[in-house]
Amino acid sequence: MTVTAHGRELGSFLRSRRERITPAQVGIPPGTRRRTPGLRREEVAQLAGVGITWYTWLEQGRPINASGQVLAAVARTLRLTDAERDHLYRLAGVPQPLAGVEPALDIPDELHAIVRALDPLPAVLVNARTDVLGWNRSYGALHHHLVSAPAAERNTIWYLFTALQEHSRILNRDEQAPEVVAGFRYSYSQHLNDPQWRDFVARLRDASPLLARLWDTEDVAPPRLCDKHYGFPEIGEIRIRSTGMALVDHPGIRIVVHTPADDCSRERIDRVLRRAAAR
Predict the structure, then answer these.
(1) C-alpha distances in Å from residue 223, one per residue of 172, 178, 184, 208, 219
(2) pTM
(3) Predicted pLDDT of residue 153
(4) Given the DSSP bridges, would you call strands 123-126 and 254-260 parallel, antiparallel or unpaired?
């Protein structure tokens, strides 16, 4: 029986969630001969009120019919968050109201005009995979190596995890990384049948041991923008707050605007812009 990409992802996700629940959390004596961390498959099945064979097949990623009601019981047993539950439903093939939509490849001129008009606030156009589609002068000054990269690497997550130390200006990467990966997995599960997404994740895993380690945790959360701290030689630290705006007329595309978190950061962004203009 052929297991699909969704099935493999589903099985891996369920195993990771099952292994993090201790017997004590669900009122089961720990025993002395447990070979696996967390709960056994038969314990999850019993607690969720489903058959052990059915749950085993579900965790193996087999193409079985899973109702929303039964998946809800499994989600409660595994103590999934709202984001993790939605992730489970998508992987199991239960329709969700917020499916991902790939944007058109051609970006309308008016979107580029809006981004340019936001100067001196750094602003960028990105798609669901965080590919950089357009930017303004201020964003280019702050992220020179990102916007100068080849198109296949002009991606904010790729830059976060693979930029050379002397090129990366991000000071709080380790703080951001787990949340960024959890949010990206949330988006990835909506594009499992897209070979470009699968190839991108495979390349990321090969390029970044940190990304590979975080990806293997199977953590998932709704994507959200993080505050960022940048360091520029001879200028100092710049703190920015990111605001994302989804475009109703262009599904899958967002405008992300960076706002200085304080007056000092605003003044330092101005200095970065003056230096870029001088170059």
Answers:
(1) 18, 11, 7, 20, 12
(2) 0.76
(3) 85
(4) antiparallel
Six token digits for residue 168: 């990366």
Please state the length of the chain. 279
User: H helices then E strands: how many in the chain?
Assistant: 13, 5
User: Could you tell me the CA-to-CA distances from 36 to 41, 51, 192 in Å, in that order?
Assistant: 10, 20, 28
Distance CA 232, CA 108 (A): 33
Give the highest mean pLDDT range of 57-66, 130-139, 148-157, 217-226: 130-139
Encoded tokens for 273: 């812009």
Q: Check residue 155 and report its DSSP letter.
A: B
**Cα separations (Å) of 170 from 173, 214, 236, 245?**
6, 18, 12, 22
Give the residue carrying structure tokens 């970065």. 272
* pLDDT value, residue 99: 39
